[in-house]
Backbone:
């Protein structure tokens, strides 16, 4: 049946197991299918998370783009976000505070900026502080002329720098004087350099232009002379009636002169152009110099301008001269052309009439015949008539022409006059301007000089005033100092006297105290000695008591201790003058001295024997002491059952005086270590029990006595020892 | 030691009893043999005498502390 059950249980277990087995593949399948489902769900989750993160990032970046503060916050809190932002948005916008420009320019601007202060209300306290630092008193300068301080940048930059200085007030606060002076010196040097450069430049260009102008003038004059010579030669050539070879020589010369003239004119034109260019350059340079506004360069500039002007004027003059000469030359050439033309005409006519007559008819005198002469004369008459007619016509025409020409001339003259007037006006204007500038310069200088003198006067007055004030102050201070000195001296003296007295007093005090202390020390030492003596004695006593105590301990089981005599003797010797100890030492029982005492343990052990015996003889006393009584007593002890130990009452009643009870109490006491009480109880025994316990009692009494005395002694020794030892 | 006294007494008692009884017995035997023709009464008598003497001695010994002597009273 067990086997059946066993099999059944196995089958059941197997069924359970098998039942579980098909579950697993289902679970797996479920897991696979759920995995498929979860796959898509996971994908959805992943996609959603990516979207969220991307959206968050994008939103952050966009908002950072819009709000730089937010961007700064994010950059501060999130590491490496600044790189991301830089990548996405570019560098962060510049901070709100303006850049730290060196307020170097602030210093030299003082003289001008002070004046600007009146105009520019943005000037902060820094300026006023920096102003205080200035060595020269810089009151608000009403004169705008003084504004032309060295190296002034344009006002806009000034204002900007002032604004920056305002924003950097603490930076500009304390400027050492040396720095200021250095800056000023630097500024002066820069100015000097600029001035030198400028003047050098000016002189250079001036020289160059002067040279060129001279060159031009020279060229022009050369051209003039060339034109003059040419014209002269031409006129000569026109007017002279020289033989042909000379004429040809003349014409050659004329040609030379012409070429010469053209060359000279060209050269003159070129040099004029160059000179004009150079003058333009000079003008530009002068304007630049004017713009740079260096004070000291003014006269130079003025001089340069004057030079320029004069050069221009000269050039113009020369040019006009040349032009006049050129017009004259043109007239002469025209005239020569006309003359040549007439001559040619005449020659042609002559040749037409008298073909064999040569051109140079003046040389011919005898070669001509009467016909020729008549024809010639007739021709000549005709010619004369013609010429007369022409002349009359010409005269009339001339009149008209002259009038027209006069009109033209008038116009041209007017024009020329106008241009000349304009030019003259310009020149005059220029001249006046130059003069004005010069005058201004002079006036400025004069004013400067006057201002300087006034300032000097003011400075002198100031120094005088300062001197007076200082003198007065000196006087006052001296008096004060004297007073202070005298008071201090008196104070010091009194203090000194007081100190001396104090010293003396303190010295005597010290001496007294030292003496007293010495005395005290001596006494202390003495008392110490005494106390030590006492202590030594106490110590000795204690030691001897300890020895006694030790001897008490030497009790072996059932054997008494060593005789206490030796220890007691030691005590007696060691504390011979201590009466109490002596008394106590003598109070010891002789038995203990000679024989020693039993230890409590041995007494305890002994007690049990005594107790047994006492119980056995409990009935025996004086009246009953036969053997039969002994037998009865034994029987009683055997048959009586009682508690071995019984706690004793505080008061003994009459019924407690029974042997057995007493013994029980004594046992109890002795078990609790109270030998004394046990001894007391044992003392109450009667009859044979008492007799039996007698020796034990005696021993107990001895022991107790000795112990008492010894404890007294030790207590005494301890007390004495405690008394003598000084607590630290 | 006072507690040993009793024991010692008892030892003496016993010893004494043994001797006395033995002696009585012996004497009884002797007397019985010598004088009384092997009758038992002298043995019994002798043993009894011996025992009685021992008992009396023992008792006396044990009583001795309580006996008041004439000289002791005089001293007191």
Residues:
């Amino acid at each position: 049946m067990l086997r059946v059950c066993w099999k059944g249980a196995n089958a059941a277990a197997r069924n359970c197991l098998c039942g579980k087995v098909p579950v697993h593949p289902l679970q797996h399948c479920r897991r696979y299918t759920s995995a498929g489902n979860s796959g898509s769900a996971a994908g959805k989750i992943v996609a959603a998370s990516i979207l969220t993160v991307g959206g968050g990032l994008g939103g952050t970046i966009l908002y950072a783009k819009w709000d730089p503060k937010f961007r700064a916050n994010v950059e501060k809190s999130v590491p490496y976000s600044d790189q991301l932002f830089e990548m996405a948005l570019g560098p962060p916008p510049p901070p709100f505070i303006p850049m730290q420009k060196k307020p170097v320019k602030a210093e030299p601007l003082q003289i001008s900026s002070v004046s600007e202060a009146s105009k520019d209300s943005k000037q902060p306290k820094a300026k006023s502080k920096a102003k205080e630092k200035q060595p020269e008193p810089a009151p608000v300068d009403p004169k705008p002329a003084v504004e032309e301080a060295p190296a002034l940048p344009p006002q806009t930059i000034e204002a900007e720098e002032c604004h920056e200085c305002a924003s950097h007030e603490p930076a500009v606060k304390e400027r050492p004087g040396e720095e200021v002076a250095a800056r000023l010196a630097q500024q002066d040097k820069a100015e000097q350099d600029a001035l030198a450069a400028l003047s050098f430049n000016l002189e250079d260009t001036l020289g160059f232009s002067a040279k060129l102008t001279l060159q031009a003038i020279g060229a022009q004059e050369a051209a003039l002379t060339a034109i003059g010579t040419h014209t002269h030669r031409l006129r000569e050539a026109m007017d002279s009636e020289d033989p042909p070879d000379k004429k040809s020589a003349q014409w050659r010369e004329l040609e030379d002169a012409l070429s010469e003239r053209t060359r000279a004119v060209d050269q003159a034109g070129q040099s004029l152009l160059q000179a004009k260019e150079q003058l333009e350059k000079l003008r530009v340079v002068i304007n630049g110099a004017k713009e740079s506004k260096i004070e000291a360069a003014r006269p130079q500039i003025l001089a340069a301008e004057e030079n320029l002007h004069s050069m221009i004027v000269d050039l113009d003059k020369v040019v006009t001269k040349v032009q006049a000469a050129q017009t004259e030359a043109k007239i002469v050439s025209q005239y020569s052309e006309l003359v040549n033309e007439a001559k040619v005409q005449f020659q042609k006519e002559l040749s037409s009439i008298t073909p064999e007559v040569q051109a140079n008819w003046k040389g011919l005198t005898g070669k001509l015949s009467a016909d020729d002469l008549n024809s010639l004369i007739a021709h000549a008459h005709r010619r004369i008539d013609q010429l007369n007619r022409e002349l009359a016509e010409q005269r009339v025409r001339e009149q008209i022409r002259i009038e027209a020409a006069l009109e033209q001339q008038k116009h041209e003259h007017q024009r020329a006059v106008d241009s000349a007037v304009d030019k003259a006006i310009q020149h005059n204007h220029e001249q006046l301007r130059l003069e004005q500038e010069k005058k201004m310069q002079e006036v400025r200088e004069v004013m400067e000089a006057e201002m300087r003198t006034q300032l000097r006067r003011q400075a002198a007055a100031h120094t005088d005033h300062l001197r007076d004030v200082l003198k007065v102050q000196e006087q006052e201070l001296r008096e004060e100092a004297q007073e202070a000195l005298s008071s201090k001296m008196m104070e010091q003296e009194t203090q000194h006297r007081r100190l001396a007295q104090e010293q003396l007093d303190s010295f005597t005090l010290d001496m007294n105290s030292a003496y007293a202390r010495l005395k005290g020390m001596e006494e202390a030492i003495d008392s110490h000695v005494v106390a030590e003596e006492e202590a030594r004695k106490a110590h000795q006593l204690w030691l001897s008591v300890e020895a006694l105590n030790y001897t008490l301990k030497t009790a072996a089981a059932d054997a008494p201790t060593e005789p206490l005599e030796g220890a007691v003797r030691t005590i007696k010797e060691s504390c011979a003058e201590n009466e109490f100890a002596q008394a106590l030492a003598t109070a010891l029982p002789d038995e203990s001295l000679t024989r020693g005492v039993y230890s409590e343990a041995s007494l305890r052990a002994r007690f049990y024997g005594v107790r047994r015996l006492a119980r056995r003889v409990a009935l025996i006393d004086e009246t009953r002491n036969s053997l039969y009584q002994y037998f009865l007593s034994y029987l009683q002890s055997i048959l009586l059952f009682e508690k071995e130990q019984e706690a004793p009452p505080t008061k003994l009643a009459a019924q407690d005086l029974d042997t057995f009870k007493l013994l029980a109490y004594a046992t109890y006491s002795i078990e609790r270590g109270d030998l004394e009480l046990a001894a007391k109880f044992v003392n109450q025994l009667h009859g044979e029990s008492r007799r039996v316990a007698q020796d034990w009692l005696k021993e107990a009494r001895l022991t107790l006595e000795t112990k008492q005395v010894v404890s007294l002694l030790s207590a005494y020794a301890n007390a004495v020892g405690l008394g003598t030892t000084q607590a630290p | 030691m006072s507690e040993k006294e009793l024991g010692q007494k008892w030892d003496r008692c016993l010893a004494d009893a043994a001797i006395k009884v033995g002696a009585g017995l012996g004497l009884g035997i002797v007397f019985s043999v010598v004088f009384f023709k092997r009758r038992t009464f002298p043995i019994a008598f002798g043993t009894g005498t011996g025992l009685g003497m021992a008992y009396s001695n023992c008792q006396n010994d044990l009583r001795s502390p309580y006996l008041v002597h004439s000289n002791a009273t005089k001293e007191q």
User: Anything to note?
Assistant: Chain A touches chain B at residues 606, 609-610, 613, 617, 620-622, 625-627, 630, 688, 691-696 (CB under 8 Å). Residues 288 and 459 of chain A are 37 Å apart (CA to CA). Chain A has 20 helices and no strands.
